[in-house]
Amino acid sequence: MLSLRFIVSGGTQRPALGMNSWGTIYNMVFMFGWPHASGFEAVQFCKQHLEAAWDIFLYCLCGAVGQNFIFLTISRFGSLTNTTRKFVSIVVSSLLSGNPLSAKQWGSVAMVFFGLSFQIYLKWSKLQRFQKKRKSM
């Protein structure tokens, strides 16, 4: 069994391994843990439709590769970069797809924008204080 210390102490691969391992365990229990679970039907479907099994495999493989890039980005640049990317992605996709946001949704966008801006400011001011301390030494 994976311990939390093993997962946290590594680079980008160990957290991804931990998340995928626990996700697999939970999914296996949910899909096959009781007599009327849907996992047995899914396996039968994939046996009958091999192209669907192949598509599912490729989807899982792409997800695992993408997850490695996400963990790499977080470890190098911090979680603020990932949050900003998600925020911009949601707003741009809403604008490009022509799905207008409601007033409440725009209020949420504004709250996230100001929250991100405040986090950036705090990170910047902390960096400025650290540089001033280094210069004074």
UniProtKB/TrEMBL annotation:
InterPro entries: SCL35B1-4/HUT1 (IPR013657)
TM region(s), chain numbering: 56-77, 106-124
Membrane topology: Multi-pass membrane protein
Subcellular location(s) of the protein: Endoplasmic reticulum membrane
Superkingdom in the source lineage: Eukaryota
Keyword Nucleotidyltransferase annotated: no
Protein name: UDP-galactose/UDP-glucose transporter 3
